[in-house]
Amino acid sequence: MVQQLEVRDVDFDELKRNLEFTASLLEALYTNGTQPSFDVEDDLQIRSDVVPVEVRDWLASTFTQRVQPIRQRLEEKPKFRSIVHAVQAGIFVERIFRKAYSTAMPDQPAEVINCLRDLDRGNFDVFSLDAVSSGHSLKTLFIELIIKHHLNSRFKVPISCLMSFLCELERGYNKHTNAYHNHTHAADVTHTVHCLLLRTGVLYWLTELEVLACLFAAAIHDYEHTGNTNNFHIYTRWVRWSELAMIYNDRSVQESHHVSAAFRLLQDENTNIFMNLTRPEWIELRSLVIEMVLGTDMSCHVLQVKAMRSCLQQHECIDKPKALSLILHAADISHPAKPWSLHSRWTPRLMEEFFTQGDKEAELGLSISPLCDRNNTPVAQSQIAFMEFIVEPTFSLISDMSEKIVIPLIQDTTCSRYRSEFKSGTEVGTETGTEAGTEVGTEAGTEVGTETGQRGLQWTVADMVSFRSMWMRHTEENKNRWRDKVKNGVSHSDDSETQTGQDTA
Ligand SMILES: Nc1ncnc2c1ncn2[C@@H]1O[C@@H]2COP(=O)(O)O[C@H]2[C@H]1O
Ligand SMILES: [Zn+2]
């Protein structure tokens, strides 16, 4: 509004509507902040009729991990008229945001648009996107996904903030010029999270805020990665100071830094993409993102898998943050479950990063960490073992978990509208009919864009089946490729193919 006034380009009707919206937004915010405090009886077993509300708030904020809400200041409920205004103005502002995005986004080169056509497919080539977007795969992909899931308008993410935030994010990812842990890996993981949510059907279990948290967590999950393992930070302390190990007390050293440094970016109003979230939304998003990113610490793998397995076996209710953490963790280790053309390019990058650490360890007179010795690492065998013991059990668990989550949704037609809306926008069925066509057939394709929830849900079941068979097919194929290398005697780190990653067959 101020900008419009400054350039004297004022449409008074629009200005009036915007002022009304601002007023109702402030009122809604105020009312929101004066909601009665939550119930802590479960946590501390306090009987509400004997303990005053102030004392309950104090106990909850001091002795539980729940977050303290703003205390009640007002008895008033929002007026009906102001709610109507807020809704009307909300729709109007959403339109403004959509317009802002389409005008602020310059036309993408044809190659980028072409690449993004495969966005919903498991064989999406992030390396190609990086090449055609002049090294901005993370920025390009994140904006695309935010728009695709309608999160920019839902959460009123200012386009200028988003652009600046993503520039900073990419800069941070490239700070240490790592062969593997750089912005392309972040783009890959963000894309994979989107695909996992979509292809398992878990997307339909989530609120928009949770989808936003998933994409954001994926995008930031390795921000400012130093190119070393956590153990390197912890155990080199005797010969070389690790600031991060000191700050985070040897616990999830890098992951703690990724999430903390990324949230620091949001402290600047020019990069605060969440400036229009309500306080409860912000608190929920932050808590989810922290849990998800900390869950990418590989030392949590066994515990994470065990906990989810036992939850499924005991028919317990699935905890959303735990499920989403597992999905991010799976995306983080997903390249062996992708076509060889992708897996064979990621592996040498990762190995090169490991070997660079090994070089440093040798230089410091330390023993070289496992898989970090460039002269003596059985790359092929390590990949086969990684797939058998880590990747396959994780993806198997994700498949079981998704079925447990999604099948009950199938009976529930109440949330079908969002499903069919999203599906017709993303053309999910097209992928199912092509890439995984042999597994689910054309039936899946016919479901796209239908208005009835039941028909849309049939597609989800088919897609879940195709998801499981697809990752199994890829890991099997990739293991066979590595086995062939072992047979042919090119399984070690001195194998030029695994060093350059040129094999994209
Ligand atoms: N193909 C692989 N072989 C061995 N380790 C891997 C492979 N892919 C991923 N990882 C490890 O899994 C970790 C997941 O989290 P990061 O991306 O931080 O770092 C990753 C690597 O350390
Ligand atoms: Zn990662």
TrEMBL record:
Q: Which positions does UniProt annotate for Zn(2+) 1 binding?
A: H185, H221, D222, D332
Give the compositionally biased regions (Basic and acidic residues): 480-495
Keyword hit for Hydrolase: yes
* Organism in which the protein naturally occurs: Hemibagrus guttatus
Q: Which PANTHER family match?
A: CYCLIC NUCLEOTIDE PHOSPHODIESTERASE
User: What positions constitute the catalytic site?
Assistant: H181 (proton donor)
Q: Which residues bind AMP?
A: H181, N182, H183, T184, H185, D222, D332, Q383
Q: Which reaction does it catalyse?
A: a nucleoside 3',5'-cyclic phosphate + H2O = a nucleoside 5'-phosphate + H(+); 3',5'-cyclic GMP + H2O = GMP + H(+); 3',5'-cyclic AMP + H2O = AMP + H(+)
Q: Where does Zn(2+) 2 bind?
A: D222
The coenzyme or cofactor needed here is:
a divalent metal cation
Q: Which chain positions lie within coiled-coil regions? A: none
What does the note accompanying the cofactor annotation read?
Answer: Binds 2 divalent metal cations per subunit. Site 1 may preferentially bind zinc ions, while site 2 has a preference for magnesium and/or manganese ions.
EC number per UniProt? 3.1.4.-
UniProt keyword annotations, A-Z: cAMP, cGMP, Hydrolase, Metal-binding
Q: Name one GO biological process term.
A: signal transduction
GO MF annotations, alphabetized: 3',5'-cyclic-nucleotide phosphodiesterase activity; metal ion binding
**Protein name, as recorded:** Phosphodiesterase
| Family statement drawn from the similarity comment of this UniProt entry | Belongs to the cyclic nucleotide phosphodiesterase family. PDE1 subfamily.
UniProt domain PDEase: residue ranges: 104-489
Which InterPro entries does the protein's record reference? HD/PDEase_dom, PDE1_N, PDEase, PDEase_catalytic_dom, PDEase_catalytic_dom_sf, PDEase_CS
Region (Disordered) residue ranges read 426-452, 480-505
